[in-house]
Specification:
Layout: H1 13-22, H2 29-39, E1 44-47, H3 54-65, E2 75-78, H4 82-95, E3 104-107, H5 113-122, E4 126-129, H6 131-139, E5 150-153, H7 156-161, H8 165-173, E6 180-185, H9 190-196, E7 204-207
Parallel strand pairs: 1-6, 1-7, 2-4, 2-5, 3-4, 5-6
């Protein structure tokens, strides 16, 4: 067991054996630098390029503390686009495979509201969505974020570039104050730093320059 092996982490045997099945034998650089703190419950700001394995860096943090027997939305992942939300949801479903029935629901714009509202009536453990659509559901009271324990802002720089700041701030304020917040971004310029500072508490900052 070396320091980049997943087995050095306090993950459940089910999650560890599933990672093995997926062929994830070594952590990528961003995973090795962020997962120990994420699994301790710390807030995180992580800067790393596309393809560096960021989804598992937050996904394992979500899943390790998720209770599948509690049918409430325990985690929310915000993504800039529908395609990215679909990708994240699929990766979360793969990571969750060994945990039994974990429902991951995608809520993005462009799709009709009615089926999304019907799905929400059945509940979901993890919601992955775009800020505009999540904000719409909050406005209609069709989504309850009061049980969220992990909030992820994925590709935060792209979301702010796309003008989603107000929606994000509104969504953050609908989550419990006592939560873990994980922010991922390819770049982290001062304007995003200032805009998002109030969303996180004493975050660990991790930057990975080269890809793994
Ligand atoms: P990012 O969000 O940083 O762009 P992803 O989370 O989408 O990256 O991961 C990129 C690819 O790497 C995915 O296909 C994922 O399944 C794979 N991957 C992630 N972590 C590992 C790992 N530790 N070992 C092997 N493959 C991995
Ligand atoms: Mg990603």
């Amino acid at each position: 067991m070396n320091s980049t092996s997943f087995s050095s982490l306090p993950l459940t045997p089910a999650l560890l054996s599933n990672l093995d099945t997926l062929g994830y034998h070594q952590m990528t650089a961003i995973q090795a630098q962020s997962l120990p703190a994420v699994l301790e419950g710390r807030d995180l700001i992580a800067q790393a390029k596309t393809g560096s394995g960021k989804t598992a860096a937050f996904g394992l943090g979500i899943l390790q503390k998720l209770n599948p027997a509690w049918f409430a939305t325990q985690a929310l992942v915000l993504c800039p686009t529908r395609e990215l939300a679909d990708q994240v949801a699929n990766e979360l479903r793969r990571l969750a495979r060994a945990m039994g029935n974990v429902k991951v629901l995608v809520l993005t714009g462009g799709a009709p509201m009615r089926p999304q509202i019907a799905s929400l009536e059945h509940g979901a453990h993890i919601v992955v969505g775009t800020p505009g659509r999540i904000r719409d559901h909050l406005g209609r009271a069709t989504l309850d974020l009061s049980k969220v324990q992990t909030l992820v802002l994925d590709e935060a720089d792209r979301m702010t570039d796309m003008g989603f700041y107000d929606e994000i701030a509104n969504i953050v304020s609908a989550c419990p104050t006592r939560r873990q917040t994980l922010l991922f971004s390819a770049t982290y310029p001062d304007d995003i730093r200032h805009a998002t500072a109030s969303f996180l508490i004493d975050p660990l900052e991790v930057t990975v320059e080269a890809q793994h």
